[in-house]
């Protein structure tokens, strides 16, 4: 009697399910489509996956290992650093240092460029090691955001700011890791957006969300309404429209978590400028650019008030920008209100000049 005969029908069906596509297998298949590729970017993505597995482990154990809570220091933005911020930063920097493909790193946690031991590396990475970490002590989802560029400075020399300030359209890979009920790696290399769910029993990321498409219409808006009175008139008008239409307000306070939900279900994420912070809070290089590219690759949109975020020119490593990203219809509606207000303001100025 064969092994198959010893199983009942349902068990046989279960064993007949496909194994699935691992991240490593997916990367190899993608690389084979580009004969000129030598595998450096593929290995870089594997380094990101490895670091995220380690960070995932430390997040799961943080409450028992003493990694919860603040570290007693601030980052370049003046924000209180969490112990896990520093732990995640160290894990990713070490992964890139060991990999050899990355020459330099810009991290939210350090003001200056971090030089790796490999000036021969062809790439640089902009990184938010742990987005939303202030939520961690209440066991809320957090994430990692990354953006990869092919350097423009001579290989073999130390990377410069010019390598990082190329603009969002020059990204060669971008994505995020969401540490939640399950851990997911979502990224693009310019050929659509694919999501991989971590299977801890196998120690592998498995393809679970191939070619993600953001619904063109949405019923969710995500922003901190505590700042409503400080927002621009057009943003306030849009939020009132959302309420009037019965849209659901959903705001976690972690960019990765809010963006991920709206990417899958349809919606808009808003982090506008305020009267005291006209450029908003989201960092352009390692938060806005990668998320904007993901949005566009998934058939969504991402704007910074008056133009696509990917067309905003960076002027500093830690520059900020307002962000409106998600379903095309919702972003387009908001953009129309902003445009109308700008035109109205120009008309008033013209009248005064007359």
CATH superfamily of the largest domain: Fructose-1,6-Bisphosphatase, subunit A, domain 1
Q: What's the number of structural domains? A: 2
Strand order of the largest sheet: 4-3-5-6-7-8-9-10
Please report the first level of CATH classification, the CATH class of the largest domain: Alpha Beta
Main beta sheet strand tally, sense and closure: 8 strands, mixed
- Report mean pLDDT, rounded to a whole number: 88
Q: What is the percentage of strand-forming residues? A: 15-25%
Name the helicity range.
Answer: 25-40%
Tally the helices.
9
How would you sum up the global shape? globular
* Architecture (CATH level 2) name of the largest domain: 2-Layer Sandwich
Binding site for Mg(2+) 2: 128, 131, 287
GO cellular component, one term: cytosol
Keywords: Carbohydrate metabolism, Cytoplasm, Hydrolase, Magnesium, Metal-binding
Subunit structure: Homotetramer.
Give your account of this protein's structure:
This protein is α+β, with helices and mostly antiparallel strands. The chain folds into two domains: 19-209, Fructose-1,6-Bisphosphatase, Chain A, domain 1 (2-Layer Sandwich); 220-353, 3-Layer(aba) Sandwich (D-Maltodextrin-Binding Protein, domain 2), CATH 3.40.190. It has nine helices and 17 strands. The protein is globular and about 50 Å long.
């Amino acid at each position: 009697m064969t092994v198959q005969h010893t199983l009942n029908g349902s068990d046989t069906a279960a064993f007949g399910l496909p194994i699935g596509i691992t991240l490593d297998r997916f990367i190899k298949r993608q690389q084979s489509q580009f004969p000129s590729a030598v595998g450096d970017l593929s290995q870089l993505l594997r380094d990101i996956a490895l670091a995220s597995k380690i960070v995932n482990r430390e997040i799961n154990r943080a409450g028992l290992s003493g990694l919860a809570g603040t570290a007693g220091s601030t980052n370049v933005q003046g924000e209180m650093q969490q112990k896990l911020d520093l732990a995640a930063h160290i894990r990713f920097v070490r992964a890139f240092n060991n990999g050899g493909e990355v020459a330099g790193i810009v991290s939210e946690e350090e003001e200056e460029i971090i030089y790796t031991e490999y000036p021969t590396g062809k790439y640089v990475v902009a990184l938010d090691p742990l987005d939303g970490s202030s939520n961690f002590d209440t066991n809320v989802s957090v994430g990692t955001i990354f953006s990869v560029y092919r350097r423009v400075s001579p290989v073999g020399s130390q990377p410069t700011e010019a390598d990082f300030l190329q603009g969002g359209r020059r990204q060669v890979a971008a994505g995020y890791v969401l540490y939640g009920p399950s851990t997911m790696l979502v990224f693009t290399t310019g050929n659509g957006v694919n999501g991989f769910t971590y299977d801890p029993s196998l120690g592998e990321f498995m393809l679970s969300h191939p070619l993600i498409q953001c619904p063109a219409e949405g019923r969710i808006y995500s922003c901190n309404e505590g700042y409503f009175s400080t927002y621009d008139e057009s943003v306030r008008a849009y939020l009132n429209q959302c309420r009037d239409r019965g849209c659901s307000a959903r705001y976690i306070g972690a960019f990765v978590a809010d963006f991920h939900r709206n990417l899958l279900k349809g919606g808009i994420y808003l982090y506008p400028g305020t009267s005291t912070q006209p450029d908003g809070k989201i960092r352009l290089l390692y938060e806005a650019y990668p998320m904007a590219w993901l949005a566009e690759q998934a058939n969504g949109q991402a704007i910074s008030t008056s133009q696509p975020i990917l067309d905003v020119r960076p002027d500093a490593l830690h520059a900020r920008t307002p962000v409106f990203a998600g379903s095309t219809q919702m972003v387009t509606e908001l953009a129309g209100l902003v445009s109308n207000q700008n035109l109205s303001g120009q008309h008033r100025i013209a009248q005064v000049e007359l």
